[in-house]
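Changelog note: in this version the structure field was regenerated for every chain. One regenerated record is shown below for reference.
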Amino acid sequence: MSLLSATGIAAAHDGQVVLHDVSLALEPGEIVTIVGPNGSGKSTLLRVLISALKPLRGKVTRAPGLRIGYVPQRLHIDPTLPITVRRFLNLPHGVADPDATTALEHAGVPGVAGQQMASLSGGQFQRVLLARAILGRPQVLMLDEATQGLDQPGSAAFYRQIEAVRAELGCAVLMVSHELHVVMSASDRVICLNGHICCEGTPEVVSAAPAYRELFGTGTGGALALYRHTHDHDHDHDHPHPEIEAAE
């Protein structure tokens, strides 16, 4: 039985229908990545799957008692708020010290429990969010562009940590990402979304699919296209400018 499935999902964001007849299933232990251009409905789909958004049509089915951990795209914490990592992990309800220590170790940031959240680097901050998501030993771990704002080495390291978490917990992973070069090496299955599912399959199958190449290009000599965000550092990082360029 699938851990989580969606059938015929249609959903809207800000009053506009962005998903049409989307169906998918997530099996135990697999890493599945959803890719697609901005506005393609990726984050909306995750919100439907975690019941944060009610679909206009369609049905989501979860295995009985399914435990889901979620890492958001971003989380703003007032830098003047004095809250340590350990206190943050107690939200919204307290957790035992051994559980907090284990979660931080699995997330790759042992020893930061006493640090202020505001003092963490971008990579450390995202790993603390990951630790919080795996506190309940989820059967499904969902990540919504969790490496946005990290540089390429930081993103690659984060995805390696996700693979380690999957191995440790035996959980399935469903993530949204723009970083195709990392996604293709870290995923068992890729779903290409643009309002509907354009194509899906193993990374090799999807990267060769005409629908995928139409969205992301083929690069020089057919090389896999690398889709990444670049930021204008004089402006808010919440407004990325996507660029497409050929992978090395």
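Spot check on this record: Residues 219-248 have pLDDT under 50 and may be disordered. The chain has two domains: 4-67+140-246, 75-136.
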